[in-house]
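An instance follows:
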Amino acid sequence: MMDGFSQALGVDRQGRHAARRGAPSGEQGAESGIVGVVRKGKALAEWAQGTRIMRGLGRYGKARGGLLAGGIAYSALFAITAALTITWTVFMATLGRNAQLRETVVDAVNAALPGILQDSSGEGLINPDDLILSGTSAVATIIAGAVLLWTAMSIMAGLSTAIGAMFGVNQRTENGVVSIFFRLAGFVVLALGILTSAIIGSLVGSVGTMLLTHVGMDGAFVQFGTKIAVFLLAATVDALVIMFIIRFTSGIRVPRRDFITGAALGAFLLSIIRVVGTSAVSNVSGNPLLAPFAAIATLLLWLNLASRIVLMVSAYMANPPRAYVAQDPEELRGTTTPNYVTLSVPETLMWPHDPITGSLLPEPDNATGEEEEELPEWGGLAGNLARRRAEKLESKAREAQLKAEEARAHYVSGQRELARSQRKDS
């Protein structure tokens, strides 16, 4: 039974082994008191750390997901103006003459982004009429639109980088034009997705209830079914938006099963904070310190929650292995000066490190473990000569290694230059 439960939660091999160790059997079953409780507690903790959710949260923490989410929320606070300006301008040019529909859309946007637009009561941060791109100068309109698009693309670039970090992808080789296109597309899809989900939640629900009442299908059960249907429709839109941003904007290729499962989970959580979170985060206005900035604080908190959900779901999709935890400072050169890779000390370039980020990789072989044998100093002429010879050869070996790496890099650079020249000639 435990194995089936572990499989359902995606527990890794180490966690399943810990669960079997913790199960009482034989001599272990005879354990009692503190010893038995401690053993079972350790086994349970190791098992829990092996679940897919905990491994995903571990990747989220190691990749500084909370910090990235805060940066995304802060940047998005400014980029939202771009999204609303473009979307609202298009809406007013097409369907904005209908006053009732306009009020419905304002309510829908405020349901998705609490307190962002002024409604009929006059409450809200932004007057919708100020968002319309208009004016006598076409040049000014073009410049304003370009600035808005650049702002929006910047936030999409940050979101793409943060999502890549959740998958352990720190660098991608991509065409610049294609990258710009997908960032712009991601921004448009994200803006339309948020607006569509909000409209579905406010408009479709009321229209559906009205139609069902008109045909005589009324009652608590019907209303509950309508709410569930609206919830699922909005969640479907959110799932499609998440999938587009991860696959195309961020360039992450996720296996189908993980992709669908993660997107569905993210959509469910986003729908939950849309339904419940709007009223929950609106309680910010009750804080005397934040009351003058209630709308901005509420919006910033909502964006932070949404960003955290997207990044946590991305880490869950990645299904990463359990993070290695260094057991000894020497594994990460903790007692060495410097304890990082730097060109100032060329010897550090020989240490195992990530060539993209420059981060040190752990070296379990460096762990001190047992105390090293203390050997006497070999002095005298013979000892000094032997020590100096060893130091000289070690220094030459390091220099030779560096020169070999430079020579290899020069050779590879020549190969690439030759390949480019041949492609041009052909």
Observations:
- The chain has twelve helices and no strands.
- Residues 380-425 form the longest helix (46 residues).
- The radius of gyration is 29 Å.
- The mean pLDDT is 79.
